[in-house]
Amino acid sequence: MRKLGKLVLEDGGVYRGFFFGDKPGVGEVVFNTGMTGYQETLTDPSYCGQLVIMTYPLIGNYGVNEIYNQSLSLSKEGKRRRSYFRGYVVGELCDYPNNWRCEGSIFDFLQEEGVPCLYGVDTRAVTRRIRSKGAMRGAIVPEDIDEGELNRLMNLPEDGFYIKEVTTKNVIRYCGEDGTQCSRNARMNLAVMNFGIKKGIVDCLAKYGYNMTIYSAYTPAEEVLAAEPDGIFLSNGPGDPKISSELIENVKELIDSGKPMFGICLGFQLICLAMGGDTYKLKFGHRGANHPVKDLLLNRVFITSQNHGYAADEKSLKGTGLVVTQRNVNDDTPEGAEHESKPLFAVQYHPEASPGPNDNLYLFDKFYKMIKSDKNA
Amino acid sequence: MPRNPQIKKVMVIGSGPIVIGQAAEFDYAGTQACRALKEDGIEVVLVNSNPATIMTDVHVADRIYMEPLTADFVEIIIEKERPDGLLATLGGQTGLNLAVELDKRGVLAKFGVKLLGTSIESVKKSEDRELFKETMEALGQPVAESAIVNSVEEAKKFAEQIGFPVIVRPAYTLGGTGGGIANNEEELGEITEIGLKCSMIGQALIERSVAGYKEIEYEVIRDSADNCITVCSMENIDPVGVHTGDSVVVAPAQTLSDRELMKLRDASLKIIRALGIEGGCNVQYAFDTKSDKYYVIEVNPRVSRSSALASKATGYPIAKVAGKIAVGYHLDEIENAVTKKTKACFEPTLDYVVVKFPRWPSDKFTEADRTLGAQMKATGEVMSIDRSIEGALLKAVRSLEIGANHLWSSNLAPLPDEKIFEMVKDITDRRFFVVAEALRRGMSVEEIARVTTIDMFFLQKIKNIVDIEHELVRHCEEQSDEATQESGGLSLDCRVGLRPPRNDEALSYNALIDLLLSAKKAGFSDRAIARLTNQTESDVRKMRKSLGVIPVYKTVDTCAAEFESVTPYHYSTYADEDEVSVSDKPKIIVLGSGPIRIGQGIEFDYCSVHSVLALKELGYEAIIINNNPETVSTDFDIADKLYFEPLTLEDVLNIVDKERPEGAVVQFGGQTAINLAGALAKNGVKIIGSSIESIDAAEDREKFDALLTELDIPRPQGCAVFSIEDAIKAAEKIGYPVMVRPSYVLGGRAMKIVYNEDKLRNYMSTAAKISPKHPVLIDHYLQGIEVEVDAVCDGEDILIPGIMEHVERAGVHSGDSIAVYPPRNLSERNIRTIVDFTNRLARGLKVLGMINIQYIVKGDDVYVIEVNPRSSRTAPFLSKVTGVPMVNIATKVSVGKKIKELGYKPGLGLFPDYYAVKAPVFSSAKISNVDVTLGPEMRSTGEVVGIDNKFSRALYKACVASGINMQKNGRILFTIADKDKDEAFPIAKGFADLGYSLAATKGTAEFFAKRGVNAEVAVKVSEGSPNIMDDIKNGRINMVINTVSHSEKGYRDGFKIRRATVEHAIPCLTSIDTAKAILGVMSVMRRRKMMSVIALQDLK
After folding, report:
1. Which of B173, B345, B755, B1041 could form a disulfide linkage to B331, CB 3.0–4.6 angstroms apart?
2. By residue range, what is the domain housing residue B728?
3. What is the ipTM for the molecules in this complex?
4. B759/B884 same-domain check
């Protein structure tokens, strides 16, 4: 029997649907416009703290499969968590998925992960509201929730420091395509700062045969640099990049090492901040798999997969040594930058795709070449 | 880079007449591209032989040539116009083939014309099977094992190696003409033989069949800076094996994971890059259902039917963007016309589902094979948009206008379970109706998936529909049960219908609302709910509205609401928010004409578009409702608002309820719109223009007869009958031959000339089934000149831009006749009478807007045979060749303007110094087992025009444009029914005098010989072999003149010959009149210069 539920927004908006889950979900309401890749989205740690609306109305058509998970699930971590969603708001959830890789339905997945879901929602209506009013707080709750309880949920304090929820605690060595074949012979050591890294990124890096060490977000720079990495990678991650000045300081130290560095998403924002630039919150962010970005160096436009609620302030980058090299074709926001003299570049979007188009894998090549030439120099 | 400054003048090639596989989508694409080019100040030269298109309107291009699309003609135009560039990728396969031919002849090089968009090299790489295979292999893209063959023997040899089943794909053909799946050697032989004949280069591909794989398509665009985007993925619900044009298609792809889809996306980008296409391209894949494995099936290096669908499905104007790219723009320099804020360089994202459903001509070609396969058979298609698959699917079904308002067929309902379960395996046009029926009878989704290989995901969606049906019936039964118990307890059935519950009932309002909402969300029509719950449609509607179960409207914006959009492109759904605002401007709804089908083609879309534009000129907010993705009318920048919706009473009334328009225009949307007029009027919608009474007076036999008597206008003697016995009595009184037809007709459907009582009995027993409510009409068949008039009446004055005369005598459907403007065989007295009758009829019927009248002229006498107080098939043709924009004027007079006030002089327009000949084009090669003989039943799918100062040249052009291959010498076969022999003789003599050798069947040859003309005796099929069929196969016959015999045996023999001519692309003339006209052309073509071209802008 379907249970009635609703999405309540902080501006008073209420949208009805069917509630699925054991507990209400509260968080920042954002929307994602991707038409496929729902499981990759559900398991992307960057969504930590958010209630995500899928604008595509049919979710779960091809079921779920372990291989689509983006949360870094490693045996050392014990029982893993796959989704950091606070809640899921969709049109239709598919009860009868069909695909040769299907291992279960999206209902099973949400149940196991304890992600509350409101389905049967006019998601376009909610999206239009978010678009015009901006991302805001909201809760998905059963229809019959007590008014006082709803108020309490809506006003729960949030510290916004989601990185600590998603980063790994231990240092992880990861080599080869499946992360197991670490050999002393690996030619290059790569330090990966994990602010909530997507498995897709790890997979893309792994193809180059790096001897990867994945560090917890808080690992002090000295410790990272002491291992003498040939390159440093700064991952994506959730929330406001300005949440912790400590982290920004740490990134600054890593940059100062002069090691080749590549940052993605939050990594890009942290680099901008560390170099003295500024970031700001976008009205409703960029989340989807169809955003055009112009690579100003190549003078070419690529379609990118995106998931970010903050952007670098281009004007603030003046004098930081960072030059904007990529720009969003829709709203002109900076999508990537390079340093004038240091072997350092970063992008705001997700070149690893997962989900979305693979147009930007060339950046991983670029990083590899950068490390190689730095090492040979 | 902004546009290439060297390109100042561009020639655009249109796709020519509508044939199966190449329909209105190219008018849409071509029009968009021409506009895009003109926007940039480029001078556009357009060549297209199809007069029923928007693109050939004088304002669309600077120079318009309605000339045959052959290299000979286009070369002359190029020489005359000297364009800098040629854009051939918007004219379908016709355009591409023509570009290849022009290149081969060195025409492009000679005149320095740059081929824009796709290079000849790319065309070859994607069209030539061997090169295609090599190209794909070089890219690491898998293609199914295949071999190119030039003969049946080679085909058999290869099939032996890889095993059956195999697919035969002829190179360079439209809509897979001549292709098919062969399961054994014999089938392979047959299919290959035909396929090789169909191929422009006598080549076919024999390929391992991947039937049963998922069929996925990608639309890709690339610019000269190598920026690439994909516009849309599409998934065929029918697995590989059914031509994509005959498949039910859903967008975006549904059953592939992101990884799988991105794999195909990567492949698509690789392919378009490797081919170096600058513009749009379509790639088709077969994707395994049990692994990641896929094959590239086909690449179309041009705008296609799928790109039209993708454009409408996403709102992304592919053709417009392709046009801009062709002249040098980069994707990030082109505005996204939908948002006006973002650029064309992005990938559309949908927040709805789109379903395309093909429209097959099985209602017209009842004798045709309904099996679907590699050869496309659909004449048109509908598209629907909703937020669920179920919703979109059911909306599509009721948009088809095949008498179905649900995925339910009254023909299937009475069949026993076993029969239905047996039929599930048949791949026919009824497939999804059968599947739904099987689910209804309890067949499992798994079992159907096993038999059909249709993905269970989709079958489950159909199952959901069936489940809701059961729920509706159960709910209704429960209510009935209570009612029944009160009344003494009879059996359980749905007697009382769904109704709001009374206070004492357990059922709550909420339960009823939930049930209704779930049905409406799944796309159920009120009629379907009414049928299931034993109510009337209006009962359901009333209840639904009283419970607040009404649709909301959403917008197609390419971006899933991420950006604010300005597109007025909407669809209905059952959800919370209606985002479509209603203005306070006076507004008028124009009803479109739905899917393209035989009898109702692109002409009516042309009319709908012009009606919309005229209303806009007058300051009205013009709202169009239509469901055909191939058309210009459903381009979101034509009307002020586009509702992409089914054209049913319910769907139209929902929009009326929302928009509160001043009224609805029904006279331009063909029978689709006219059929809705009565019910709309009953529901309080004002019909703009001629009233319901006028429409009825013209269609209702008795009223019409009364009117004619009153106006003193003669018509062939006839009457309406309701039974076989009445019919026989009436026919005896009137005298044979008689013309019989059901009273409400579409494109001459089920109309027949009957010569004796036996045939009449036979006809009556089949026609009665067609329309039990309406009588059958029996008229005396008058053999005279058929004349057609289109006119506009403003209530006082009548404007008659022109009169058209048919080449074929009455009895051949007007849509299949060759029409000539101005008339050549009418006396001044005839013309005066026609003008007088037209005036009287228009006034008598109180026409406000368009009127179309068909007359028969016999000597001095003029008879009326049909009057339609609406726009006709010939309106675009006549508008173009007279320069009088009839639809524009008719629309304006419909809202109260006067002809004089609009600057036109009432009465018959002056005849010009040129002739315009409209000729029909048939798609017979696409549909096996269909007769090609001309008769009262319309069979043509499209039309072409030939214009010239000399009549013979105009006719020559029309013949060439329609694909009649006239050889200067060779052998002509005559096989003539006894009744026509006298008339055929002078024609035979004429051809003999011109130096052609003649062949004739025995009787005909003897008849000719007696009169001094010798013909080789051809052996009839029934007389043994070798026979005529072998002569045709061996290329010994260059043309056939055959009239239909009334004996069964003669008919069967004739049928075989006629089909053979179709399959071997030999002209077959089945009317003495056509033969006579063509003799006229062929007699001058060797001594006179036949090639000359004239732009529409230069016609005086």
Report:
1. B345
2. 717-773
3. 0.97
4. no
